[in-house]
C-alpha cells in the first residue's frame, strides 16, 4: 500500500479515500491505523452502505472545498477501477490548450454521460426509486460513476447546492445530475475512453493510452495492469530523454 505515495507524488496527484463508519470495531481500528500512517482517508460518522454513498459524495465535496484550494481537477472513481493517470493528465492538459474560453473550461465535467435514462420503478431492483423519491419518469443527463473529472471551480457551488437539494440515494445522479448541474456544469462525454468490463485482450489498448479507465476483476489483476502501465511510461520517458539528448548534441 505504500506504493500509492510513489504513484501520486511522481504525477502531481494526491490520492484520497472516502469512508463511512463501520459496526465492526476491529475494522475501525485498522482504518484508524491506516489513516494515521498515510493521512489519506476522509471519514465521517454515517454507516458505509450502498444507499449512503450520497453522504459520501457530499463529504468529499465539502472536504475539497475546505482543504484543496490549489487543485485544478478532482477525479472521482470507484475502488475497482484502474486509470491511466499519465494519459488522463495529458488529455486534460491538451484540452486546456485548444482555445476554449476560460469560463467553459471551468464548467466542463469529463465523464461517461448517461442520457435520458428511465427511472427504475421495480422495488426489487437495486436502482429502484419511488415516485415520492423521484416523481419524473426520466433522469436529466448525468455522469456514470466509473470516472468523473470535475474542475475545482465548480466545487464551491456544488457544496452550496448540496445544502438545499433534496437528498437522493443514487449518488451518481445526485453528484452530477443535481449538484454539478445546479453549479452550472457542462458535460463532456468521454465514454469512448472508458472500458465497461475487465478484459485481458483490452489491456494493450489500455496501457497504450487508447483508454483512460477500466474495471479490474481482482487486486492481482489491478496490480499487473498498473505495473504494465508503469513499465510502458518509464520506457517512453527514457526514449524521450534520449531523443532530447540527440537534439542537443
From TrEMBL:
Residue spans crossing the bilayer: none
Alphabetically ordered keywords of this record: Glycosyltransferase, Golgi apparatus, Membrane, Signal-anchor, Transferase, Transmembrane, Transmembrane helix
Membrane topology: Single-pass type II membrane protein
Enzyme class: transferase
GO cellular component, one term: Golgi membrane
InterPro entries associated with the record: Glyco_trans_31
Molecular function per GO: hexosyltransferase activity
Top-level taxon: Eukaryota
Known EC number: 2.4.1.-
Similarity-based family: Belongs to the glycosyltransferase 31 family.
Designated name of the protein: Hexosyltransferase
Organism annotation: Enterobius vermicularis
Amino acid at each position: 500500500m505504500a506504493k500509492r505515495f510513489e504513484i501520486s507524488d511522481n504525477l502531481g496527484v494526491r490520492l484520497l479515500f472516502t469512508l463511512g463508519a463501520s459496526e465492526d470495531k476491529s475494522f475501525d481500528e485498522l482504518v484508524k491505523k491506516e489513516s494515521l500512517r498515510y493521512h489519506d482517508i476522509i471519514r465521517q460518522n454515517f454507516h458505509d452502505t450502498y444507499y449512503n454513498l450520497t453522504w459520501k459524495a457530499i463529504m468529499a465535496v465539502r472536504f475539497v472545498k475546505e482543504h484543496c484550494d490549489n487543485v485544478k481537477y478532482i477525479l472521482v472513481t470507484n475502488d475497482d477501477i484502474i486509470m491511466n493517470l499519465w494519459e488522463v493528465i495529458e488529455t486534460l492538459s491538451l484540452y486546456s490548450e485548444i482555445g476554449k474560453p476560460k469560463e467553459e473550461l471551468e464548467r466542463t465535467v469529463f465523464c461517461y454521460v448517461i442520457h435520458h435514462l428511465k427511472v427504475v420503478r421495480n422495488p426489487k431492483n437495486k436502482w429502484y426509486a419511488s415516485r415520492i423519491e423521484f416523481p419524473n419518469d426520466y433522469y436529466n443527463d448525468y455522469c456514470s460513476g466509473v470516472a468523473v473529472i470535475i474542475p475545482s471551480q465548480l466545487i464551491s457551488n456544488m457544496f452550496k447546492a448540496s445544502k438545499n437539494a433534496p437528498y437522493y440515494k443514487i449518488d451518481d445522479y445526485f453528484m452530477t445530475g443535481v449538484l454539478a448541474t445546479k453549479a452550472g456544469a457542462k458535460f463532456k462525454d468521454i465514454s469512448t475512453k472508458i472500458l465497461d468490463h475487465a478484459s485481458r485482450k483490452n489491456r494493450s489498448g489500455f496501457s497504450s493510452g487508447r483508454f483512460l479507465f477500466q474495471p479490474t476483476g481482482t487486486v492481482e489483476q489491478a496490480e499487473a495492469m498498473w505495473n504494465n502501465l508503469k513499465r510502458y511510461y518509464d520506457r517512453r520517458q527514457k526514449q524521450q530523454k534520449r531523443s532530447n539528448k540527440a537534439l542537443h548534441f
